[in-house]
Request: fold
Amino acid sequence: MLVTALPIIPLTAHAQPYPARPVRIIVPFPAGGGTDVIARSLSDELSRGMGKPFIVENKPGAGSVMGNDLVAKSSADGYTLLLTTSAFSIVASIGIKLPYGGIHAFEPVALLGRAPNVVLVRNDSRIRSAADLLREAKANPGKLTYGSAGNGTSVHLAAEYFQSLAGVRLVHVPYRGSAPQFADLLAGHIDVAFATMASAATLIRDGRVRALAVTSPARSPAFPQVPTVAEAGVKDYSAEVWYGVFVPKGTPATVVAALHRAIAQASAAGAFRDRLAREGVVGGIGAPQDLRTTAEQEISRWQQVVKDKEIRIE
Reply:
């Protein structure tokens, strides 16, 4: 594949061109998960397009707070990026004290798109559909277990919202990322998993797990055979995940613009575009303001959901 290198962007008449050295992409989740896969695909394209290495570093912990904090407190020079998900908004909406200034500690660069979360069981599970899950959960409250990628993550809140609207009670088993969660699901240690589509897509395609439902308002183009949670009978349910790139507050506008152009060009290239599609991410690359608006709207939305539904994140 031929990739045209982007011009190196001088910041001022006296400054070094950007980028002049390797750039870090911080992923606030463990290696091997869906966000990590997307970040590594993007880093390959940015390295080729901008002529310097873009290096992914995983900094998981506290539902993404640790990685967010690292980036928020990094130099505002364009050499430390945050590639995150709607967990960024969720941790700002559930009442925990953040060690950084929330969304105001960042400059948005690009909205990468949206994808559903997905409800999964083992292929040999007696639960064959989302309707089966609802029936069994209502008949046996507090008996079924579900795994998530961690306390306060987007999938955790999606699962809590599901229980609230469906009137069921499942037992939460949090993990440090999706890889150990899937290992325990396949081993039979948990009954159900709520996961991002990006992390689960390969397992679904390989037939190792069964997707019961997606959490988006409409079916996913990546898996059109999988119904939505709302179709299964949980009216008005929707809990998508978005993906975006931020930099620390105060990063020069010229650097933000250069990064946005590079990400837009990367999304037009075969490998990264195909990766997003395979992971169920849709919507195209959004402008910096699109990311800010999305993150702010999600913070307001989840604050209201947590309050109205009395959802508790422990």
The mean pLDDT is 91.
